[in-house]
Amino acid sequence: MPFGLLKYGLSRTYPAKHHFTPSKDLKRHYDVVIIGGGGHGAAIAYNLAKYHGITKVAILEKGYLGGGNTARNTAVIRSNYLTEAGVKFYSESVRLFNNLSNEFNYNVMMENRGQLTLAHSDAAIRSFRWRAEVNQHMGVRSELVDRQTISELVPNLNMSEDSRFPILAGLWHADGATARHDAVAWGYAKGACDRGVELHQLTEVEDIEITSGRVTAVKTNRGRVECGCVVQAVAGASSIVAKKAGIPLPIHCYPLQAMVTQPYKPILTPHVSSPQVHVYVHQTSRGEFVIGGGSDPYPLYNTRATLDQRETLSAAAMELFPFLAQARLLRQWAGTTDMTPDYSPIMGLSPVENYYLDAGWGTWGFKATPICGVTMAELVATKKVPDIIKPFELERFYRFEQINEAGATAASH
Amino acid sequence: MKPALPPLATRRRSLKLLTCPLNGSRNISEFTYGGEYHTTVNHLTTSARDWAEHVFFHDNAAGLVTEWWCHTASSFWFLAERNTITDEVVRTFKADKIYTQRIDFGTINPESQS
Ligand SMILES: Cc1cc2nc3c(=O)[nH]c(=O)nc-3n(C[C@H](O)[C@H](O)[C@H](O)COP(=O)(O)OP(=O)(O)OC[C@H]3O[C@@H](n4cnc5c(N)ncnc54)[C@H](O)[C@@H]3O)c2cc1C
Q1: Helices then strands, each counted (H, E), chain B
Q2: Does the beta carbon of B84 lie under 8 angstroms from any beta carbon of chain A?
Q3: What is the nearest CA distance from A37 to chain B, expressed in angstroms?
Q4: Checking DSSP bridges between strand A271-274 and strand A115-119, what pairing results, if any?
Q5: pLDDT for A361-410, tens place per residue?
Q6: Ramachandran bin of A235, using left for φ above 0, alpha for ψ from -120 to 50, beta for the remaining angles
Q7: Which CATH code fits A23-73+182-251+342-408?
């Protein structure tokens, strides 16, 4: 009976269960202030509270939880990078991702469907062989596959030898996966708030107070907050926020766009990516085809979607999957991505003693969410930089020790 | 610090055309972005640290910036003032507006290199 339902709806005894504790007034002081309530900020708070018993923590988010790039990414999770530092770091994140639903007791809809990157040139085959060797050496499932295997993995891929860039070979990464990005942010934030962390949405950090090389407080649109230390995890706003702390960064912000079609019946299992035609495609469990590609051609702090990009992405996607010509687009959007010169992140210490950086996530940071939570929390709690993130410190640029992941990142995410 | 935006009437929705000081108004697809404009440091006298900062670090400002662009078809490099929030180009101009003299950094003395 509908009236029966109404009774529950209006009853005080059966209130809707809220994921997060409603926001209170800001306290005068927190041990840790995390700027940015994306997946990374939430993951760092979660690990501080759960594994280090540090709960006087505030996440200050200028918009809403997970409304930045966490909400905008195409959720590709993989570890088939090129450098030893990169593969070690991302494969640990993939391992953590595989257990995340259990960790939270909350479904993040992890789907291990594999990732196939296509080679359309001899040069690409050579670099894929190199990557496969590095990956296998480090225990990552990654191998060079021939045209026959590609047709078996993805029967409806256009394997014509008469196309503009015929497919010659592929890099098959069985560990590749996707997960529901919103659920990742919510799972971390819920676990953090349940343990006493405060999530303050609509709270923008406007200024940062530094006294003799240490951060002492942040000024927000809701007042001033003193803090023991600050972790900055603001992705597209990295340069802007770091500048308030007087820290220059090697970052340029470019829009990255993506789009989805209406849902169709399931016909595509793995994630397919082509660095040559600058497109990647996968089908979500709801049936939508997610289509993404390269960044916009010049820097911009704006999340508008462009016709140019829609045309290039559509043309490239149709080259790989001609049947997509019939598909209707549902949405197109953009995020502001914080690109570094070497396509690797900037994590760890900064020139300000108690100010920690989690920045430079560009087009590749969703997959790193769990490992960022673990390592950044460890850094805050122990003041020691964990070995696995040591190579990613800001100082590397001053020593000309870049970690080149450009080739393993372009249009693959 | 919010940058002052131009009045609505002069704002363009997005950057579709760019005025090349040599070739006039052309489609944006004919141009290549060339990075932020900043004064060039002297590689002979600067420290390795300052050189690294010069090469890798950027202002990455939200608001009005001066940057290099190239008209790809004619290989003509010039400067533009652009708002990186609204994507509006305020003006473009030839490099000789800034570089009035030839810059000579001298040559590296091979003896002094170790
Ligand atoms: C279209 C697109 C596709 C992508 N695809 C992939 C992919 O397939 N796989 C992958 O691994 N990565 C992908 N990425 C990259 C990934 O989305 C990001 O690297 C990742 O989400 C960064 O997470 P975050 O928590 O650091 O940042 P965000 O989720 O952006 O969170 C930062 C938060 O900081 C807040 N903030 C900013 N300034 C302030 C301030 N002054 N005060 C308070 N709060 C502030 C913002 O409001 C925001 O919510 C993609 C990105 C885009 C745009």
Answers
A1: 1, 6
A2: yes
A3: 21
A4: parallel
A5: 999 999 999 999 999 999 999 999 999 999 999 999 999 999 999 989 87
A6: left
A7: 3.50.50.60
Ligand 1 proximity of A292 Cβ (cutoff 6 Å): yes
Domains of chain B as residue ranges with CATH: 1-39+59-97 (3.30.2270.10)
Residue A10, pLDDT score: 76
Extents of the domains making up chain A: 23-73+182-251+342-408, 112-175+252-339
Q: Chain B: give the shortest CA distance to residue A259, in Å.
A: 19
- Residue of chain A nearest B52, judged by CA positions: A398
The 3-state secondary structure of A330-391 reads EEEEEEEEEECCCCCCEEECCCCCCEEEEECCCCCCHHHHHHHHHHHHHHHHHCCCCHHHHH
With 80 as the cut, is the pLDDT of residue B57 above it? yes
Sign of CA dihedral A365, A366, A372, A377: positive
Profile chain A (413 residues) by mean pLDDT over runs of 10 residues: 73 71 88 98 98 98 97 97 98 98 96 97 96 98 98 97 96 98 97 96 97 97 98 98 98 98 97 96 96 95 94 96 96 98 98 98 98 98 98 97 91 56
Band (B53; pLDDT cuts 50, 70, 90)? very high
Task: Please tell me the distance between residue A359's alpha carbon and the centre of ligand 1 in angstroms.
Answer: 10
- CB neighbours of residue B75 within 10 Å: 8
Max intra-chain CA distance, chain B: 61
Tell me the DSSP string of A394-413.
Answer: GGGGTTT-----HHHHTTT-
Is residue B88 left, alpha or beta, with left meaning phi > 0 and alpha meaning psi from -120 to 50?
A: beta
Amino acid letter for position A375: T
Q: Is A285:A178 a contact under the CB 8 Å cutoff?
A: no
Please name which of A76, A87, A116 lies closest in space to residue A404, comparing C-alpha atoms: A87
Nearest to A80 by CA among A258, A291, A273, A337: A273
> What angle, rounded to 10 degrees, do the helices at A181-194 and A369-382 form?
30
DSSP state of B51: H
Q: How many whole angstroms separate alpha carbon B11 and alpha carbon A126?
A: 47
Whole-prediction pTM: 0.93
Per-residue pLDDT for B64 more than 70?
yes
Contact A315, A158 (CB under 8 A): no
**Which residues in A lie closer than 8 A to residue B61 (C-beta atoms)?**
239
- CA–chain centroid gap for B99, Å, is 13
The β-bridge partners of A332 are A259
What topology does CATH give the domain A112-175+252-339? D-Amino Acid Oxidase; Chain A, domain 2 (3.30.9)
Q: Classify residue A222 by its DSSP letter.
A: T
